[in-house]
């Protein structure tokens, strides 16, 4: 049985401000992120009970900026959304994502194929007359995560 993936563009969506708590990863390159992100998903999952005020306990969120705007914004955040920041667990960080307009694509399949799907989303954004804003936060909202099967909403900032 072969590994399959599917994706469908959901359209444009306004997303309210999000408060996130989790781990920040800073790696040398895409290959290292490909190795470290799954480890970090497992690590945060095992420490989920330490995070207060979870919005949706089954939904992990990855956050990153496609273009580096500052050293503080470099990296990939693996987080849970919270209603309020309280007693951030040791070794974790908090991050506020401002309200933003996103082009959204649903992806189901192995994590290793996610980055390729962004090309489809970027092409659709241009075809619809929107402009990407790589200096703002991109979100990957996981309703299911494993090494071989993911169900994720890819949210690319647009204007």
TrEMBL record:
Gene3D superfamilies linked to this entry: Regulatory factor, effector binding domain
Family matches, as Pfam families: GyrI-like
InterPro entries listed in its UniProt record: AraC_E-bd (IPR010499), GyrI-like (IPR029442), Reg_factor_effector_dom_sf (IPR011256), YobU-like_regulator (IPR053182)
Domain AraC effector-binding: start-end pairs: 8-159
Listed name of the protein: AraC effector-binding domain-containing protein
Originating organism: Pontibacillus salipaludis
